[in-house]
Write a structure and sequence with these properties.
It contains ten helices and six strands. With about 300 residues, it is α+β, with helices and mostly antiparallel strands.
Length: about 300
């Protein structure tokens, strides 16, 4: 009597990796790309995410050796989706951006724009705000001068960048409508819902700099002046990053002593010293706030 056991997907995947290596030795990167893809699919089945991403990447590299940029894009998008679902947004954003470039090279503008828009959202979720702005500008430049078709992912990315990076105010209904038109797939929903919630909360969050005491029209040079930096948010958040800007006529005597405690409100003293005569400007100041499943970047 014989018992038959189904081989586990991880073992099958390793066989495909071996076949891919053989195909490369024989000089067939296109066949190697297919074998690496099969291996990656099996590693997904085995819930070995790191190996799945690795071999989707290998499949993409082999496709590029065969000058197949569209296939390379498809492999990188698959890896990006897995990373997005796993909330590894920084790595995912890089893969989506690379895929967008491959698709744009072959004039597949709609697919390229969608991929680049998701790269923007990944960058926002990973707190790489400067990268998000630069990628969005790149995508917008590619769209300029084109006609026909709506790019819903690009529109949603525009709103997210506007609110989280530029301090824009956009009605929540417009954000919901843009997200509904975008229609992210199941593997992208965690990302898009996270960004949408962050955008809405950013608009409900107040960050302000006010006089700590009676407002004054003028102060003597080298005399201390005090301000209060505060925030109010509908949900508990903590400050995870801050950026200050002061005019050259002002210098910090005491920066805000910001802790990392979760709270709906926060308030800190800022002590400044006028070092030059003339007008002085405090700000802009940007706080990045993080809570449970939410990120707020507020000016």
């Amino acid at each position: 009597m014989f018992s038959f056991f189904r081989r586990d997907p991880e073992s099958k995947a390793k066989k495909h990796v071996e076949k891919a290596l053989d195909e490369l030795v024989e000089g067939y990167p296109d066949y190697a790309s297919e074998e690496y893809e099969k291996a990656a699919d099996l590693f997904v089945e085995a819930e070995q995410i790191d190996f799945a991403v690795k071999y989707y990447r290998e499949s993409a590299y082999c496709a590029l050796e065969h000058d197949d940029h569209v296939r390379a894009a498809r492999m990188k998008l698959q890896a990006g989706k897995i990373l997005t679902q796993d909330a590894q947004y920084s790595q995912a954003g890089s893969l989506y951006s690379e895929a967008a470039d491959h698709l744009y090279r072959h004039k597949k503008l709609s697919r390229s724009t969608r991929a680049m828009s998701i790269a923007v959202l990944c960058s926002l979720a990973a707190r790489n705000f400067d990268t998000a702005v630069n990628l969005f500008k790149k995508s917008t430049k590619r769209l300029s001068g084109t006609s026909g078709g709506s790019h819903h992912a690009h529109e949603f990315a525009r709103m997210a960048v506007g609110v989280l990076c530029e301090g824009d105010e956009i009605p929540s209904k417009d954000i919901d409508d843009a997200l509904r038109r975008f229609k992210p797939d199941d593997m992208e929903k965690r990302l898009t819902e996270f960004v949408a919630a962050s955008v809405k909360l950013a608009q409900q969050t107040e960050v302000a700099i006010e006089w700590a005491g009676k407002p004054r029209e003028s102060v003597k040079s080298k005399s201390h002046i005090e301000f209060e930096l505060r925030y109010e948010c509908p949900v508990p958040v903590r400050v995870i990053d801050k950026r200050y800007s002061l005019s050259n006529s002002l210098a910090f005597v005491e920066e805000p002593d910001i802790d990392g405690k979760l709270s709906k409100t926060g308030s800190w003293l800022m002590v400044l010293n006028p070092v030059l005569s003339g007008e002085g400007v405090v700000g802009p100041i940007r706080l990045t706030l993080e809570g449970q499943e939410v990120l707020v970047n507020k000016h």
